[in-house]
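Session log. Operator J.P. requested a structure for one protein chain; no other inputs attached. Running the standard single-chain path with token output.
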Amino acid sequence: MKRSISFLSLAMAFVFLLSACNAENAVESESVGNDDSLGGDDYAKALDGEFITVLTGGSSGVYFPLGGTMAKIYQDMGAKANSQSTAASAANATTLNQGKAEIGFSMGDAASDAYEGIDSFEKQGAQENLRSIASLYTNYLQIVATKGSGIKTIEDLKGKRVAVGAPASGTEISAQRVLAAYDMTYDDIKADYLSFSEGVEGMKNNNIDAVVISSGLPNAGVLELATSKEIVIVEIDKEKILEMQKDYPTFFPTVVSKDVYIGMDADVHTVGVNNVLITHKDVSDEVAYAMTRALYDNISQLQNSHNAAKDIDIKKALENLPAPLHPGAKKYFDEQGIKE
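Structure written below.
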């Protein structure tokens, strides 16, 4: 009897010891798995209670709906997030450099100029606090005119009323550079510093002959204009684009397909430039990581908000970045095996 009790006691002790070891291993395993505070499935906690302002652009551009969707994604993660309509690229770069927002959209060339302090940023100096989050999708420079205007080439813009974009915006900077490629300046045209929507409205009212728009495809304002006016997209010669690329490496040749807008007769060569998300150096690594990962974890929501977002490809996220990559964003892309 004593021998049976002794054996039973020994067996129970063994079971207890085994259970204790398993529990200890489980705790150790859990600790190892959560050692990296930036990763894991609970990464959203980094945004809980954080104030996040997403800088976008004008209401007729692509940045506006995408930024609104991003703010909603961050809100769902517990952030106190909002999106702001702005004058877009250059203004966003300045605001972020000052630490007055957390993330924003920009054309790659404008953000690069800002970081380096050249051209339109020469007076205010290099915006060295800027950091890159990711390259997104292509912006297509669209110089839109009506068929009745007689404008078919860049040279035909001479003497015409042209909406070149908001002052110092990415679009306006691109407009100057394209004219320069054809040995033209604003002295050769009647330049109006109007936003996309203002320029399109001016064309509807016959107060503007052409509007310069840089956006993803299709642009909502051009779509609307094409329903009431016969439009043309003015071609920019591929050779001219390659020449510009020597001075502005963020520029590249691309094509607006003839099936994008009603009334287009053929594909049109134009300037392409990557759109980017930028932030600033004082955004914490944890917040930058969470903002970046949330973008790609919820990419379908962005794609549902505008067709241009369907071109966002994580494999191209680190191409032609205008400023150093934020360490928090780098952490996420390292996890995904994406390298600069």
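Operator note: The longest helix spans residues 2-33.
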